[in-house]
Amino acid sequence: MTAVVRRTAPRALALVAYVAAAAVGVVVSVRLAGGQHVFPLDDAYIHLSIARTLAEHGTYGLQPGAFATPASSLAWPLLLAGASRLGLPLEGGALVLSLLAGGAALLVVDEVFLRHPRYAARPTARGLWLAAFAALVPLLPMGLLGMEHALHITVVVALVGYVLHLEEAAS
């Protein structure tokens, strides 16, 4: 097996499986909700309302001119508002960004494994770890929430990977 295949095959398979499962999840949820996508938690709609008010009126809050922080995340509505200003529809944007963050989590986890000599040369082990990570987190349901959770997971895994890298460099 070539070095390129060893490096890319597990992450490519994990991403293909994640995208396929996400597509099925979105299609099923749209069908169950009578033809439109519905987020399962009201928190997603609070984030969307803050993002809409911020993008349209420049106010971080639920109403123009009235600053408020009713959301579970300060940064997620900022990200959604920025995406909205770039032309991404808010509801679809929240779903897309959340699912993209889930895919990024898989890439970051794989990158952490690639830096560990025990797993770097063993693509099957990396593939199994990626599948276990995606299932046990659970990454796909987090992505389908349209909220910041998949992004939090990605950032935490990246920080853990960085700390492990610093630890290896120090020894």
Mean pLDDT: 91
**How would a textbook summarize the main sheet?**
none
Poorly predicted runs are: none
First-last Cα distance: 31 Å
The backbone outline, from C-alpha atoms, is: globular
Q: Helix/strand-derived class?
A: mainly alpha
| Residues in β-strands, percent | under 5%
Task: Kindly state the number of beta strands.
Answer: 0
Order of helices and strands: HHHHHHHH
Oligomeric category: single chain
Radius of gyration, CA atoms, in whole angstroms: 18 Å
Percent helix: over 70%
Query: What is the number of helical segments per DSSP (H or I, 4+ residues)?
Result: 8
Brief rundown of the structure:
75% of the residues lie in helices and 0% in strands. It is mainly alpha-helical and 171 residues long.
Protein described:
By secondary structure, the protein is mostly helical. The protein has eight helices and no strands. Helix 4 (90-114) packs parallel to helix 8. The longest helix is centred in the N-terminal third of the chain and has 30 residues, at 3-32. The protein is globular and about 55 Å long. The model has no long low-confidence stretch (mean pLDDT 91).
Provide key terms for this protein.
75% helix; 0% strand; globular; mainly alpha; single chain; 171 residues; 8 helices
List the topology elements.
Layout: H1 3-32, H2 42-57, H3 75-85, H4 90-114, H5 117-120, H6 123-136, H7 139-144, H8 149-170
Helix pairs in contact: 1-4, 1-6, 2-3, 3-4, 4-6, 4-8
